[in-house]
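worker-03 picked up job from queue 'complexes'. Input manifest follows; two sequence lines, order preserved.
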Amino acid sequence: MAWTWFHRLASPPYIYRTAGRLTPWFAWPAALLIVAGLIGGLYLSPPDYQQGDGYRILYVHAPSAWLSLMVYTIMAVAGGIGLIWRMKVAHAVAASCAPIGASFTLATLITGSLWGKPMWGTYWQWDPRLTSELILFFLYLGYMGLRAAFDDVQRADRISAVLAVVGVINVPIIHYSVVWWNSLHQGPSVMYLGKPTMPPSMLVPLLMMFLGFTLFFGAVLMMRLRGEVLLRERTATWVREVVGT
Amino acid sequence: MSSYYFHSFHGFLNMGGYAAFVWPAYAVTLTVMGLNIYWAKRLMARSRHAVRRRIAVQEESRLAGEPSV
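worker-03 finished. Artifact:
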């Protein structure tokens, strides 16, 4: 009995319907939080005492960076579950994650570069944090390239999942790079020794953006997952009724 | 349009002299979000199309009296 939820999660029609039902529950709160976070971050919050209004890039850079790492971790875990339990839906989740994660990794690199120019005097530096984030972008591209190289979906699933799982080692490297090495990039600033290091007028919009971006990922993942499941199940009879003729 | 920190709309657009960095950063991020929605919708449309094509092929072979694929 305890395992019925696991079996249901492995059922493509159940996932297709559930993902469809969940999408607005992610999308609407995400839209509200992001709009509120944009107003708070760009307009209501005070300028930084050192960086003036230039620091406002933080409100899009940090949540994008958070997604780049979180999405990769989810992709690797889903790929691992797919490899171990041969669960098709888990592979569909992993495949759905890749373009979302890749695009937010690129956003992280570009917004970081735009922040680096006025503050560090350079768009790019071969710094541990920047370099490991660039490697993350290449891991996403490699994952997608590998998938595209196989016509057989099941082989593409298995081989790309191995890359995702091996590449997850890069996630803690990116996270701790600013602690382990002498990096140009600043350390974590939301929390330091359990205490927030910024006033609520800055912290509240930033947390809204973090939550908003996370929910946005949830909404896009649900939409992509439906597409992935439908494509993989196109020979099954249940898809006839959901698509209609 | 003024807030506690921005005294005019022009001041807001100017972003304390960092306009050339702040606005492109926001534009890039919002573009990425828009693209993600577009790509997800396109994937769904392609999958629906693939299913319909599959059904059409099955119907054709059924009408022709061949075993279904």
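worker-03 released lock.
Residues 12-44 of chain A form the longest helix (33 residues).
Chain A is about 75% helix and 0% strand.
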